[in-house]
Amino acid sequence: MLHALITVALVCSPDASAGSPGEPPSIDGPPPLIYPDDSTTSHTIELAGKSLTYDAVAGTMPIFDEATGDVEARLFHVAYFKTNESGVRDPSRPILFLFNGGPGSSSVWLHLGAFGPKRVLMGDAKAHLPGPWGLADNEGCLLDVTDLVFIDPVTTGFSRATEPDGDNEFHGLESDVRSVGEFIRLFVTRHGRWPSPKFIGGESYGTTRAAALSKELQSRHGMFLHGVLLVSSILDFGTVRTNSLSDVPWTLMLPTYACTAWYHGRLDQSAFATVEDVAHASQQWATSDYLLALARGDAISSELAESTARTLESFTGIAADRWLQANLRIGPSRFRKELLRSQHRLVGRLDTRFVGADADAYGDRPSWDPSYAAILGPYTAAMNTYLAEDLAFHSDLPYEILTGRVHPWDYSGFTGRPVETATRLRSAMLQNPDLRVFLASGYYDLATPWAAADWTMDHLGLDAPWRAKIETAYFPAGHMMYIRDADRLALSEKIRIWMQPKGR
Length: 504
Description:
CATH architecture of the largest domain: 3-Layer(aba) Sandwich
Helix content: 25-40%
Number of helices: 13
Largest sheet: 10 strands, mixed
Radius of gyration: 24 Å
CATH topology of the largest domain: Rossmann fold
Strand content: 15-25%
Low-confidence stretches: 1-27
CATH superfamily of the largest domain: Alpha/Beta hydrolase fold, catalytic domain
Number of strands: 16
């Protein structure tokens, strides 16, 4: 096993440019990246009362330039294959490819949070555990119904381009989809998995990628998927980009505000007994009366503005006069500061159940996200430990959990219009009668609000038979709903059922 990954080869040369004797020669550019061999380890896990054996393969997959045959990048991944009593894998089993989003995120969240054989022991909102954080077997692992492959796109995890500054070529919607699609094609080919029912799943921006991949794999590689899993979905950025000229995003934020206010005791508890009650009522009002009021723009009457503000107060706990001062439009950053301002507290973005303090209690913008801070340490420590100790994969490269090195991300194909991949998913669904979609959303997610995901699904322009192929589920947690144990198990069970073969 190779442990040192970044090496400098000092090659002596008789050329004078190598320097005088006793001096190190000059080196042009950064040292080459040297990857260790793939590591395969065998394990056992108890799932649904039965002992299951599996192989774990941690390694890198080369992505080639077809024109030159050169390796352009290596994508790190961890694959899990169920084995029988003789240690043999079944190449006809379903296989699920998973990734997170960002852009710039590794797959650690779905890997060690939701569906892999191990999970992080970090606790939850109001019950966060102190470090050091350990790992435990994940009873929500999906290995009993499907093999699993967790993919880290270029510059995330241990994935890197082979040429200096080559990572930038992969930092964009289209180039990212092509490279991840090529990884999936090559993995399926090398592991003999073309006979397998194939599924892909993403979280957050990973859903943007997954929707685009559903068409990419189909049209470029002839790979027709059986299902696309969307966790905390964002397929149309126009549904969440708030500005004074677009009314829809404001209305789609409101249901998350209402659920959050209910959770923190800011609403009349007698009016809404459960979060589902407030979610349904706020979504219904937001996409009807609230949307119509905002559509009046500056022509709205004072009477309608005041009645709308009073209803907003009843759904958010934020005073009507504050809504009037904000022209009936309070964005997510301001909401996170405003909701608990009297307590000098802010709520999280990824998960609004989490609360933190801010140095400037007066300002309109939060300086940090307590929900992200709560998960970053546990997942970083757990992943680095797990790779080395359980999977025997050692690297001196930093495992990039969530990096800003991918920015600016290239959206040049969407100049002058919102980024969206929903229409690509629709195209794939119309051409593939076996393709089904599972949408999972958290009520307390302000990064990708659940009502915005619903709106997008409701505007795909699909007839009833295709709409029936979309299944939705909601959870009383945030962006990573699986950090709440009950939701992790419920999500797993719903997906386990969803993946079972179904007729057309």
